[in-house]
Amino acid sequence: xxxxxxxxxxxxxxxxxxxxxxxxxxxxxxxxxxxxxxxxxxxxxxxxxxxxxxxxxxxxxxxxxxxxxxxxxxxxxxxxxxxxxxxxxxxxxxxxxxxxxxxxxxxxxxxxxxxxxxxxxxxxxxxxxxxxxxxxxxxxxxxxxxxxxxxxxxxxxxxxxxxxxxxxxxxxxxxxxxxxxxxxxxxxxxxxxxxxxxxxxxxxxxxxxxxxxxxxxxxxxxxxxxxxxxxx
Length: 232
Known about the structure:
By secondary structure, the protein is mostly helical. The protein has helices spanning 2-14, 18-28, 33-39, 43-65, 91-99, 118-123, 154-169, 182-185, 192-202; strands at 82-84, 87-89, 171-173, 176-180, 214-218. The protein has a three-stranded mixed beta sheet.
C-alpha cells in the first residue's frame, strides 16, 4: 500500500491533479511508523517509497511556499515540515539519514553520524546506493529529472536515470573530466575519485585512455526549476 501510494502521489503531482494530491496526502496521515517498518522490507522498497515521497513533497511545499530555492541561503532542507508516519521529517532526514544511511551532510560522503535515533535505524537502507543522487530532485536546474518509481520498474529506472544524468552532466574537455559539484558533494558515496571514475567507465562516459585524467568540478546551478519530470 505504501509503495503504491507514494507512486500515485508523485503521479498526481506530475499531472497537477490538486484534488487527488490532497486525497493521497490525507491517506498518508493514516499510516504509522510500524506500517512502514512492516511494508518496506527491502532496500528497493525503501528507495521507491522515500524517493517518491521526497520528490512529491518537495514539489508540493516549494510551490505552495514559493520558496527561495537558492540552497546556500536557505534552511529549507533542514526544516521539519513533512508530517509522515507519526514523525516530523525534513528533506535532509529523508536524503541523508534514510537513503544515505545516516551520513553527515557536510562530510562529502565520508562520515556517518555517531548517534542514530530508533526510527532512523528502522527506516534507513541497509546499503547506500549511489544512484539515488540521480533521482532525487531538489528543485534546482542542475538536479536530475524526476522519475516516478514503482517496485516493478525501480532497477530499470535507476539505471536510466543514472545514465541520463551522467551523459548530460559529464564530459571530457581539454584532458579533464568535467562534471558539476554534485559529484564532489557526495564523492565518498561514489567510492572517492577512483570509484567515481570506475562508475563513469562502467556507464561508458569515459574510456580506458581517459581513466587517469583529473576532474574539473563546475558550479552546481542552484537556479529554481520545478516540475522537471521525465517525459514518458
